[in-house]
Structure formats: C-alpha cells, structure tokens
Write a structure and sequence with these properties.
9 helices; mainly alpha
Length: 217
C-alpha cells in the first residue's frame, strides 16, 4: 500500500504547481490565443497569472494525491477557453495555441534545471530540500510537457496533430478521436503492468532520460 509522503519538498512542489506552473501554462494558452486574434480567454478573465482563476478542483486534487502518495505525478488546471473560429491561421493557429502550454512547461523545466545543475556540480552546501524541490520541479514539468503532447483529446497534442495533418485527413480523424479519445486515454492510464500504466511507463521513462540530460545526473 502506498504511504503518505509529507516531506517538505513534496509540499513545496504541490504549492509551486498550483500557484505558478499551472497558471503559467494556462496563461500561455490564453496569451497565444489573444495574439492570434481570439479574445475569449481575456473575456472570461483567464488572460492572467492569478492562480485562483486557473484552479481546477479535480486536476489540482489529483496533483496533490499523486504527489502525496507517490507514483506518476500529474494533474491539470482549468482548461483555457479558446474559439478556434477567431484564430488567425485556422488549424495552424489552433496548433500554436495548444503548443504554448507544453512549451511553457519545457521552459520552466530548463529554467529550474540551470541552477540545479550548477548546485550539483559545485561545492556549495545547499540544503537537500532545495535540491530535491528543484529536481521535482524539473521532473514534473518535463512529465507535463510530454504528457500534454500525447495526441489524444482533450490533451494539447491532439490540437497539434490536427494542425499538422492536411485539412481533409484532420476533418475525418477529428470527430473519431474526440468521440473515443477519453476511452483511449482511460486504457492508457489503467495500471496494467505491475501496477504501472502504459502512459506512466512511456512518459515516465522518457521524462527521466530528459531530466538526466538537463541536470547532468
């Protein structure tokens, strides 16, 4: 049975994502949409870094539970409203708006990995909780960046897929994926192999490899 993990680094990471990383992710979606001609997010007050307006009880609660009880850490904020009809570039514009979120996670991961790599390679006596918190911040941001790029609705990767496909193929594929995407997603997150899901095995292992590359460990 999984035990409750109440170490300081875990609490710091939960707070960091609910207060900063999730709002930044959604703000980047909103800003990209606004720059491409859609003011829907701004109209609903989502063109902001205020964590309260981006908080999703289920996604935030899942982040806390997966962090506190161990395993594959993930969660989400309240999805940013976007009207694709207002976007410049059609499907390409929608793909750019979708990419803005995972790209923000990648940038945050790199930004945290730079000081962490320096600390790990120096002789400074850095408190372990700081090193652990920075590592977890890098790791979870990498996971979220990869996870959101999975091309299954409602994840950002599905919008990217529709944006790079030719319009006729996207027109035929989109309703199928949007109708059955949730069922595919459930299969991917079910613990099938020694308590691990297909998604956690693939995304988790890929994330570990990227984190090691970023922090030099």
């Amino acid at each position: 049975m999984l035990g409750l993990n109440l170490d300081p680094a875990t609490i710091i990471i939960i707070a960091a994502f609910l207060l900063f990383a999730f709002p930044i992710h959604e703000f980047c979606h909103a800003l990209a949409a606004y720059r491409l001609g859609d003011s829907t997010a701004k109209y609903y007050g989502r063109l902001t870094l205020n964590p309260i307006v981006h908080f999703d009880p289920i996604g935030g609660g899942l982040l806390a539970l997966t962090a506190l009880f161990g395993g594959f850490i993930f969660g989400w904020a309240k999805p940013t409203p976007v009207n694709p009809m207002n976007l410049q570039g059609g499907h390409r514009g929608e793909a750019l708006v979708a990419l803005a979120g995972p790209a923000s996670n990648a940038v945050m991961a790199v930004a945290a990995a730079i000081p962490l790599r320096f600390m790990l390679g120096s002789t400074l006596d850095v408190p372990f909780v700081i090193l652990q918190s920075l590592y977890l911040f890098v790791y979870v941001n990498v996971i979220l960046a990869i996870f959101n790029l999975v091309p299954i609705p409602p994840l950002d990767g599905s919008k990217l897929l529709f944006g790079v496909l030719d319009p006729q193929t996207a027109y035929r594929l989109r309703p199928v994926l949007e109708q059955y995407g949730i069922f595919i997603f459930i299969v991917l997150i079910l613990p099938l192999f020694n308590g691990e899901s297909i998604l956690s095995m693939t995304v988790g292992r890929f994330a570990v490899a990227i984190v090691r590359l970023l922090v030099g460990q």
